[in-house]
Amino acid sequence: MNEIISFYDVTVKIGQKTILSNIDFKLNRGDFILLIGANGSGKTTLLKTALGFIKPSFGSIIYKNEISGYKDIKNFCGYVPQRLDIDRYFPVIAEDVINFAKPEKNLLNYIIKEFRIKDIIRKPFGMLSGGERQKILLAMALSKKPDILLLDEPNLNLDINAYRDFLRCLLLIKKEFNPTILMVTHLISIIPKMVNRVFVIKDGRIIYKKAPYEIFKIKNIMEIIYG
Amino acid sequence: MDEVVLKSLLMAGLAGLSCGLTGVFIYLMNIPFIGVAIAHSAMAGGIWALIFNLPSKFLAFIASFLTAIFIGPITDRAKTNPNISLSIIFSFVMGIAFLGAGLLEGKNQLVTNFLWGNIFLSGWKDIFFHGVLVIFVIIFIIIFFRQFSVFLFNREIAATLGVNTGFILYFILFLIGIVVTLNLDIIGGLMLFALIITPPSIAYQFTFDLKKFFFISSLSGILGSTGGVILSFIFNLPVSATVVIFMSLLFFISTLFSPKRIRYGE
């Protein structure tokens, strides 16, 4: 059995409003899925439902590996949130953030070297740039040696160079540790290498599941994503 | 040294220490109204206990803890701005407290103690209980330091790192409830909040290290409260007000010499 997480006809309602409708997909070990859609299409809700922060109103989510069922995906995932509204003077340095995940020493050294974060590791987290923060959060998520990485719009508020640097680290991880990755974005212009499927979400429904090269063949793709 | 002075100084130091430690949570969770609401509901509980001739500290704790539990789901779910909901709760418990104060007859001194505090009433038994509480708080902070750190940093990330965020939240609220109750008739419900929020505000000027943050906040709490008590003895001033003013002065001075601001040019 190769499935990491499966959504079966998941619907999420918040109050009277339906945020996700009949979501149905499976992520296999080693998949790198890009979930794209316009603002308010349900991308972040889907990610938070996968994480267990939001309970489905209908349908079910099954987490499993080769041996046994996962009861709580939070124990097996690394999560990089959209952004952290943290005060500049918050008493935590970048190294503390990575250490929250209790990394092994060798892994920590590897991350510091390959992510090129040696110069920022002792800096206050609140003083880092958006790109540096995202790299530190990715390093923290990876330090847990997760089976699955869930990334919520890591490109938000990053300039193109910072985002490219973030993707460089992500691809490095993918090559070295091969985790399953589910990355939410509304940026279609850069589809990272190694992405094997792209899900397009609109109004809470996944309307396309395509290979990356097929995505640009969808006639109104720009309209779907950018409105 | 006079025994009353000694007991007052010891109690002031312990009050400053316990408030300085728990204040770190309130400060870094960015929910200052929680401290205010809990302090005032403890005051309401204490005053209403006097009306019904019940043990005032016990009822003060129950009231503060119930408020903490009521606040928990609101901040946890955060469907409204927590500070808005909390300011409504604060007004509500303030109303209940003053309603009780208005109904009480012939116990004005006891009501005054809850409002303004009276450090001279501290006995050795009170000092002992407060000391034990402080030791427990310190032990819990040491044991759960990683969980507290990541929880204060970001609750969602904490959940993905195996921290039981619900437990930590309610535990912190429970801790605040106990500390507020024990300090209620020492500092007084009206002044207590200053003792909770000022020490971490001072610590915030000095360090990026959470361990040092706890230490500086505790130290500021002790220095501010004992310094205030000494000044009130020397100049024969009301204790609680002097403590609060002295502690606020320490805060203003700390902002002038903040190494963080000097280093980062702000």
Summarize the structure in words.
The complex is a heterodimer of chains A (227) and B (266). Chain A has helices at residues 43-51, 94-99, 105-114, 130-143, 160-177, 212-215, 221-226, and strands spanning 3-14, 17-28, 32-37, 58-64, 69-70, 77-80, 148-152, 180-185, 197-202, 205-210. Chain A is an alpha/beta fold and 227 residues long. Chain A has one domain (3-226): 3-Layer(aba) Sandwich (Rossmann fold), CATH 3.40.50. Chain A starts with a strand and ends with a helix. Chain B has one domain (3-190): ABC transporter involved in vitamin B12 uptake, BtuC (Orthogonal Bundle), CATH 1.10.3470. Chain B has helices spanning 3-28, 32-51, 56-77, 82-103, 108-116, 124-143, 145-153, 155-160, 165-187, 189-203, 210-235, 239-256, 259-263. Chain B contains 13 helices and no strands. Chain B has 266 residues and is an all-alpha fold. The mean pLDDT of chain B is 86. Chain A binds chain B through residues 51, 53, 74-75, 77-79, 81, 84, 86, 88-93, 96-97, 100-102, 124, 127, 137, 140-141, 144, and chain B through 28, 146, 149-150, 153-154, 156-162, 203-204, 207-210, 212-213, 260, 264.
Uncertain spans of chain B, ≥5 residues at pLDDT below 50? none
**Percent of sequence in beta strands of chain A:** 25-35%
* Span between termini of chain A: 39 Å
Strand order of the largest sheet of chain A: 6-7-8-3-9-10
Task: Give the topology.
The complex is a heterodimer of chains A (about 230) and B (about 270).
Chain A: E1 3-14, E2 17-28, E3 32-37, H1 43-51, E4 58-64, E5 69-70, E6 77-80, H2 94-99, H3 105-114, H4 130-143, E7 148-152, H5 160-177, E8 180-185, E9 197-202, E10 205-210, H6 212-215, H7 221-226
Parallel strand pairs in A: 3-8, 3-9, 6-7, 7-8
Antiparallel strand pairs in A: 1-2, 1-4, 4-5, 9-10
Helix pairs in contact in A: 4-5
Chain B: H1 3-28, H2 32-51, H3 56-77, H4 82-103, H5 108-116, H6 124-143, H7 145-153, H8 155-160, H9 165-187, H10 189-203, H11 210-235, H12 239-256, H13 259-263
Helix pairs in contact in B: 1-6, 1-9, 1-10, 1-11, 2-3, 2-4, 2-5, 2-9, 2-10, 3-4, 3-9, 5-9, 9-10, 10-11, 10-12, 11-12
